[in-house]
Amino acid sequence: MKEISVGLIGFGTIGAGVVKLLEDNRELIAGRLGARLNLKKIADLDITTPRVVAVRKEMLTTNVEEILKDPGIEIVIELMGGYEPARSFLLEAMRHKKQVVTANKALLATHGDEIFRTAEAEGVNIGFEASVGGTIPIIKTLRESLTGNGIKSIFGIMNGTANFILTKMSDEGKPFDVVLKEAQSLGFAEADPTFDIEGIDTAHKLAIVLSLAYGKRVNLKDIYREGISGISRLDIEFARELNYRIKLLAIAIARGDSVEARIHPTMIPLDNLLANVNSNYNAFHIVGDASGSIFLYGQGAGMMPTASAVVGDLTDISRQLLKGVSGCVPARALREDLIQNIALMPQEDMVTSYYFRFSAVDRPGVLSRISGILGTNNISIAAVIQKGRKESGAVPVVITTYKSREKDVRNALQEIDKLDVVLDKTVVIRIEDDKL
Ligand code: HSE
């Protein structure tokens, strides 16, 4: 049986998972591929700490050049993460005509153009299924299965850590900090937890998804982004009362020649599928103009689920090598020369429903002053909740709205937060009521 030699850069959690999977399912994979995947070399700075899987000592090296310069190695897997030296290693591998597989979403979201163009120029494949949604085949779905569709919208839960935190806060009433520590100990949080909590990791993933769905280059900075660190138990409780659950959603909606793209904590109805995606699970609700709704669900992080996506890419690319072809599927689902910059829709023009929690003095006429300002800014009220009475200090007054323009909301809140009867900055959470 023919053998294809593979080099692995990065022997951390996911790297070890890939080695284990290639070992555990060796015969199954060989049978499906019609060839053997021979993991020839593994490079990492740490080659002494024991991993979940034992490897022969001579397979390990601290010198990446032993992989990049080995003419026998046909596919290089990069699982070290970070920008440098991961970027240089990937570029060098491709310049040596090696096929590459990576899970590095931060790198693809910021240096994707250079990397994808190099892959095309060198005539090599790049697999990056593991960069978004862990085990979920979202890249393959957008790149291959939905080729015949214009993509109307994508709503996704793309960060397992944030979802784990919101789920625990909601189900167990635990505070944010305690749950964050639990997530970190389970091993799916990023090295820097602000990437998970502040929606940066989600933005990396959404940028990749946008480029595949719309064949465009997206500037990460243009994506509107809000994280979950401001979500309090009080808002989770109010959401429950209003029949919503709060999720950190990544949203992409085609708007004519432009695309609306935003990431923020979102209240969604309890009977919506996304509201029921819990713990560290991820999900994507995609609407194609021919396909209609597609819902993908699975583990967005973790050793073996992510390894599954890496091995899927390995076999895809190996099949092309075995047939002597390459680049059958364009990296970004579109001919590279057709890929253009995209101007995302200005944030101020976004339209959605809103939840406001005002910290207001409990006195006659306060609600009418607040609602008056909302009214003069074209914001129509859907519901009001005020509970409890307080002689002094503030009480929470919750107002939900019908669809309103972001610009109007910003203007109204600026005015309201200046009122002498409003004692704290108003909490704003967007609501997506549409049936998904
Ligand atoms: N930190 C990421 C998450 C890992 O929590 O989803 C997978 O990208």
Q: Would you write up a description of this structure?
A:
With 436 residues, this protein is an alpha/beta fold. It folds into three domains: 3-134 and 303-335, Rossmann fold (3-Layer(aba) Sandwich), CATH 3.40.50; 138-299, Dihydrodipicolinate Reductase, domain 2, CATH 3.30.360.10; 348-431, Alpha-Beta Plaits, CATH 3.30.70. 36% of the residues lie in helices and 26% in strands. The strands form three sheets. Strands 7, 9, 10, 11, 12, 13, 15, 16, 17, 18 and 19 form an eleven-stranded mixed β-sheet that branches. Strands 3-2-1-4-5-6 form a six-stranded parallel β-sheet, sandwiched between helices. A two-stranded parallel ribbon has the order 8-14. The two termini are 47 Å apart. Bound molecules: L-homoserine. The site of L-homoserine (HSE) has 11 residues, from α7.
Distance between the termini: 47 Å
| CATH topology assignment of the largest domain | Rossmann fold
Overall pLDDT, averaged?
A: 94
User: What CATH first level of the largest domain would be assigned?
Assistant: Alpha Beta
Map the helices and strands.
Layout: E1 3-9, H1 13-24, H2 26-33, E2 36-43, E3 60-61, H3 65-68, E4 73-78, H4 86-95, E5 99-102, H5 105-122, E6 126-127, H6 138-145, E7 151-157, H7 160-172, H8 176-186, H9 193-197, H10 200-214, E8 216-217, E9 224-225, H11 233-241, E10 244-255, E11 258-269, E12 281-288, E13 292-299, H12 303-323, E14 340-341, E15 351-361, H13 366-376, E16 381-386, E17 394-401, E18 404-405, H14 406-416, E19 427-431
